[in-house]
Amino acid sequence: MATFTALFKQRVIHYFVMKIILFCLCLLVTAKSMGKAKEQYLLVGSYADSTEAGIKVFRFNIEQGTFTWISEKSGIQNPSYLTASSDGRFVYSVSEVPAPDAKVCAYAFDKQTGTLTLLNEQPAQGSAPCYIWVDKRNRLVVTANYNGGSISTFPLWEDGTLAPATEYVYAGGTAGSQRQSAPHLHCVYASPDERFLYANDLGTDRIYFYELAESARKGLTLQKVSPDFFSLPSGEGPRHSVFHPNGKWMYVIGELSGRVTVFAYADGKLSPIQTVEADAAHASGSADIHTTPDGRFLYVSNRLKDDGIVCFSIDPKSGMLTEAGKQATGIHPRNFVITPNGKYLLCACRDSNVIQIFEINPSTGQLKNTGKEIKTAQPVCLKWVETDD
Predict the structure, then answer these.
(1) In this structure, what DSSP letter does residue 284 have?
(2) Which of 331, 336, 339 is CA-nearest to residue 362?
(3) Of 49, 61, 122, 51, the residue nearest 92 (C-alpha)
(4) Which of 1, 107, 149, 268 is the most buried (most CB within 10 A)?
(5) Do 263 and 196 touch, CB atoms closer than 8 A?
(6) What is the DSSP track for 45-62?
(7) pTM
């Protein structure tokens, strides 16, 4: 009997020890999984001389709003706008300078160390490229060339390097106008299904669009459609755009008008359904536009006067906007990003030399200044890349 009791106790102890071990293993796996979800790389593009660190990499905790500097990269002048491949292995940057020195650089991004390695570079063809886009399958890079009045397409090789560019030049403008006397391409972006490519021309109040087509011989290319542009009212100056997460609506901020135009979107076609004021100061300095991941709120940054970010609530049935609040920022807010979990908004304030961190109220969309700032010289562009822990 004593032997049986001892054996029973031994088995009970063994059982509970195994349960504790399994529980601890589950905690470790969960912690690692949560750690990966909580961490994102934040890539920062800025205005800088080629001898300065124009591109910087931080590690950002999207749950706590904390950050750590990881690395930086010099060797390129004015890397004012960046984009990353969908898998995070490659990063592409413009060099926003006049032609013929304007160029685009391709980098390999090590997701283990958070460091960038230059792969190659190509002339931009157009002057002062200010925006860059890459498709989800990493086949084509496209830039918007502000002073060149053009866009440039760069086919990509399998190793992420850039092939020489093809330039698409536009015409038009209003004679005597200070900022619309010629085309000024400011943004390029694709439809949610990447069937169509759009290009916002601040100079002519047009949104040009193409069909994205792939062939075995040429790869991914732009195919003209007819008509090939949509006209906005005179003086809008379309700058940046964003699609709603459901893909049904598209929002365009007019830099010059300070208004958001809401479009219904279907099969490449845009139909305007609302226009709302985003810049009450009428400073003609509206800059960037984004929605929260859940599609409930939309934000716009305004510069030059009463610098800040305005928030709109989005009607879930119509996509139309209602103003929900304003938040003052540092000087000259440019690009901003929202964390993938929708908890924080980070704003690049170029002339204050900081990236401000705001917390988003999930019920109202209002922003709260956390007081946390990433101090960095002349930040312009912010992009997320997933960590690879």
Answers:
(1) S
(2) 339
(3) 122
(4) 107
(5) no
(6) EE---TTS--EEEEEEET
(7) 0.90
